[in-house]
Amino acid sequence: MQTATPTRKAPRPRADALRNRERIVTAAREMFVEHGPDVPLDEIARRAGVGNATLYRNFPDRDALVREVVCSVMDRTAEAAEQALAETGDAFAALEHFVHTAADERISALCPMVSSTFDKEHPDLVESQGRVEQLVEEVMGRAKEAGQLRPDVGVGDLLVVVAQLSRPPAGTDCLSSDRFVHRHLQLFLDGLRAPARSTLPGTAVTIKELRRS
């Protein structure tokens, strides 16, 4: 009679290793926003307070690090949408919470990296994108059903404007323009409220159209 050989579970990462990884991702996000995706990796390691070997042990190349940063930003934005849906009975307030959180996560600064730095079809990226898009559709759908959101806007409209309004104008400092972002986003959000005061040209932009553009 043969006894089954017990399978060994993969060891869980140590707490300090997880903290180091989180510090690297946080430092990379900050420096990508400030300097773009080509910032030297040793500068990221220095800001994170870890050695180069630790950075490369977690992320073997630049693409892996950029992808992790973009996915982590989208995941936190999705969590904000989930929290907004759970905590407020006001559908439009949930939409406002999502939009302002997305701006704080600097999605506009990180989005260009998706198309210029690595594989857009990577499973981790596709999963994170899909989660955000699904939640935004749910948030907007609830606001429309409540009669609070004008019916002629789509998810693509919202994401495009959030990216544009949270990106600093050409020739201005990225960080110094932060104080204007939420002011301008709120002006945009007020324009989304129903009843609409005007007729929008064209049709609502969908996610599929956004990806094709």
TrEMBL record:
Entry keyword Hydrolase: no
Pfam families reported for this sequence: TetR_C_43, TetR_N
DNA-binding positions: 40-59
Residues of the HTH tetR-type domain: 18-77
Molecular function GO labels: DNA-binding transcription factor activity; transcription cis-regulatory region binding
InterPro entries attached to this UniProt entry: Homeodomain-like_sf (IPR009057), HTH-type_TetR-like_transc_reg (IPR050109), HTH_TetR (IPR001647), Tet_transcr_reg_TetR-rel_C_sf (IPR036271), TetR_SbtR-like_C (IPR049445)
Protein name, per record: TetR family transcriptional regulator
